[in-house]
Amino acid sequence: MIKDPPVLRIRRRFTRPPAGVLEAFAGAQTGHVVDAMGGKGALPARIKPLLDADRRSGVAVTSHSRPGDNLGLFASLDVVRPGDVLVAASDGFVETAITGDLLVGMAKNLGAVGLVTDGAVRDTAGILSTRLPVYCAGVTPNSPSRNGPGEVGRPIVIGSVAVRSGDIVVADADGVVIVPQDEAEAVIEALQAVRQAESALEAKVRSGLGVPDFLQAVLNSPKTVEE
Q1: Residues near 81 by beta carbon (within 8 Å), at least 6 away in sequence
Q2: Is residue 226 part of a domain?
Q3: Number of domains the chain contains
Q4: pLDDT in tens, the chain (227 residues)
C-alpha cells in the first residue's frame, strides 16, 4: 500500500557560493556565460522575462510544485535570503499560473532579486510594479491551487538543465543560464577569455570589419569549393 506523500519537503541547508564568486558574475551577459560553459547551461528558450530585464545574478533557491499547484513555490519564501533567485519548476505546465503579483511582492520584500519558472504567471501589471525581474514560460489568468505536494531546496530539472539550490543564476533580456556551483571557478576563468575575445571582435566591427578572419580562412582553404 502506498502511503500518502508529505505535503511539503523542505531542505533548508545547502551550501551557498562565496560572495566573491557571486560578484564575479555581476553584470555578466548570458551569451558569454554559455560560451564560457562550452555551450550549455541555458534554460529553454520559451522562458523569457516579462519585460526586458537588466542583467541579474543571484543564488538559486529551488522549488517544485506539481502542475496546477504552487505550494512548493510559496514554501520557498521561508528559505529565501537577500540576493537569492527563486527557481520554481512546475513540469512546464502553463495552463494555470504558478504565481501572481502578491507572491512576487513577498519575494521582493524578503530580498529576492529574481524569480524564474518553467510555468506561467498572472497579474502582469502588478508583477511589473514590483520591479522584481520575473522569467516565465507564459502568461495566463488561471489561478493555481495550494494543496501540494511540493518541495523546496531539492534538485530540480527545467528542460534538460539540472538546478540545485546554491547554483548561480545569470539572467538578462536573452534568457536565463544556470552555473553549477561546483563549476563556478572554472567558468569565471573561462568567462574572462570570452569577454576579451568578444571585446576585441566588437572593436573590429566598430572599425568597419565586414568579413571576419575565421571566415576568410575557411573561404581561402580547400574546404571551400567554388561553383
Answers
A1: 59, 61, 110, 111
A2: no
A3: 1
A4: 567 778 999 999 999 999 999 999 999 999 999 999 999 999 999 999 998 777 889 999 999 999 999 999 999 999 999 999 999 999 999 999 999 999 999 999 999 999 999 999 999 999 999 999 999 999 999 999 999 899 999 999 999 999 999 999 999 999 999 999 999 999 999 999 998 887 877 788 887 878 788 888 888 888 888 88
Which residue segment(s) compose the domain that 149 sits in? 8-201
In a domain, 102, yes or no: yes
Q: What is the pTM of this model?
A: 0.90
Domain assignment present for 194: yes
Does 2 reside within a domain? no
C-alpha neighbours within 13 Å on the C-beta side of residue 71? 14
Task: Name the strands in the sheet holding 120-121, side by side, starting at the edge strand that comes first in the sequence.
Answer: 97-99, 120-121, 138-139
User: What CATH number is associated with residue 111?
Assistant: 3.50.30.40
